[in-house]
Design goal:
The protein has 271 residues and is α/β, with parallel strands linked by helices. It has two domains: 4-136, Rossmann fold (3-Layer(aba) Sandwich), CATH 3.40.50; 160-270, no CATH class. The chain has eleven helices and eight strands. It has helices at residues 11-27, 40-47, 64-71, 87-95, 122-130, 138-149, 166-189, 208-217, 230-233, 237-245, 247-257, and strands at 4-8, 32-36, 51-54, 74-77, 114-117, 155-161, 220-227, 263-270. A five-stranded parallel beta sheet has the order 2-1-3-4-5, with helices on both faces. Strands 6-8-7 form a three-stranded antiparallel beta sheet, with helices on one face. Helix 10 packs across helix 11. The protein is globular.
């Protein structure tokens, strides 16, 4: 038995990202395996995962819903295509090309069994909700299902992004960009081939109060919230190098970066 099974749709396109995701799981003490889409049904029976991350839910992947009922695992959707933010392409991805212009919502009721859908952006999320295929209340359904699966006093740990504050806005929108430009210019001086890409897509972020209110509504009590600053430190080349080579600087940076509430771990107890 493993914690998480990650299904890969296109190895040439997704190999790097999914292997980075696997390393994050390993760092958190979770066991995981990456398997081809051609072998996912066999892998589910073999590894009996607690959670399965799927790249799509149409075509042959639609059997994931029956498998989850039979073997009892959670389904997470990490879309392998973003459709360039175009509504027609996103709907086609979610329903299948043959249904994109005329789909019956009753045929997609299984989508409610997706515990979490990692949308690439806020516009993408809006299209998903407007389509009727997904609900704004999806996270509430997830909390409800987890509550039913836990015994009294059971612990539920939620690892989620949250809203920006002044510090995080400055760090993401100003400092990291300036650092990237300086490193890029310096690489030109040294004749090093380094690309320059700004990725401002952080997906959808829930506010702390929203998460806590949803938890309370589903009979959970908040025990603690821990802000994880190390992830943000590692996004900076300079800070990453400084913290790696000096333990004192690492401790100082950890304390400073706890002011960035962008990545939090919530610990709840079922009442």
């Amino acid at each position: 038995m493993i914690d998480i099974l990650i299904i890969i749709d296109n190895p040439l396109r997704e190999h790097l990202n999914l292997n980075l995701l696997k390393k994050i799981f390993t760092h958190k003490g979770l066991s995981s395996r990456i398997v081809s889409k051609h072998l996912f049904e066999y892998a589910i029976y073999k590894y009996k995962p607690q959670s399965v991350i799927v790249p799509r839910v149409t075509g042959g992947f639609s059997k994931i819903f029956d498998l989850s009922k039979k073997i009892k695992f959670h389904i997470y959707l990490l879309p392998c295509e973003h459709g360039a933010g175009e509504k027609a392409r996103i709907i086609s991805f979610l329903t299948g090309a043959e249904n994109r212009n005329n789909y019956d919502l009753s045929n997609f009721r299984n989508y409610k069994n997706i515990l979490k859908f990692f949308v690439p952006s806020e516009p993408y999320k809006k299209i998903c909700i407007d389509s009727g295929l997904f609900s704004e209340d999806q996270i509430n359904l997830a909390f409800s299902k987890i509550n039913k699966s836990l015994q009294k006093d059971g612990i539920f740990i939620v690892d989620m992004n949250t809203e920006h504050n002044f510090f995080s806005t400055f760090y993401h929108n100003f400092y990291l960009k300036i650092e990237s430009i300086l490193i890029y210019l310096f690489s030109k001086i040294l004749n090093k081939k380094i690309g320059l890409i700004f990725d401002e897509n952080f997906g959808y972020n829930y506010k702390k109060k929203e998460i806590i209110d949803i938890a309370i509504k589903n009979n959970f009590k908040l025990l603690s919230i821990n802000s994880i600053g190390k992830n943000e430190i590692n996004r900076s080349f300079i800070f990453r190098k400084l913290s790696k080579n000096n333990k004192f600087i690492e401790k100082v940076l950890w304390k400073i970066f706890k002011l960035i509430p962008y990545h939090n771990i919530y610990k709840f107890k079922k009442l």
